[in-house]
Amino acid sequence: MAQARTGDHVRVRLTGRLDDGTVFASVGEAEPVEFTLGTSDVLPAIEDALEGMQPGETKTVFIPSTEAFGPWREELVEEIPRESLPTEIDVEVGQQLQVSQPGMDPLIVSVIDASDFSVTIDANHPLAGEDLVFDLELVDVS
């Protein structure tokens, strides 16, 4: 039976959980996710865990926040005047916005507070600061 190696195309079912057991992602129940090992399409620790696995094999991998999406950083939270936003945007807490930056790729931010006068946005990844646990099942290698 083939073992997964860098450069192989793999099909994987995975469930991502926080340390407390809260499921934040479940991918591949109906159709497994597909990617090529070594192309950085998933977290490096997931690629490392899949390396050497055979189809049908399962594995659980713990990924500390420093190897996942990094620490949560206060400096990525900013309060901006509501008047600086386009008037057609009806901003609500929990909403995600795309922010343009000169010379850079657009940035996705989350609205964490909103008043009549200001909006507080958070540019941290939603899983920043979280240790993650992934249950992996390698379905196929080609």
Describe this structure as you would to a colleague:
This protein is mostly beta strands and 142 residues long. The chain has 2 domains: 9-69 and 128-141, Chitinase A, domain 3; 74-122, Beta Barrel (Thrombin, subunit H), CATH 2.40.10.330. Helices cover 5% and strands 40% of the residues. It is built from 1 helix and 9 strands. Strands 1, 2, 3, 4 and 9 form a 5-stranded antiparallel sheet that branches. Strand 6 (96-99) and strand 7 form a beta hairpin. The model has no long low-confidence stretch (mean pLDDT 94).
List keywords for this structure.
142 residues, mainly beta, Chitinase A, domain 3, Thrombin, subunit H, 2 domains, five-stranded antiparallel beta sheet, 1 helix, 5% helix, elongated
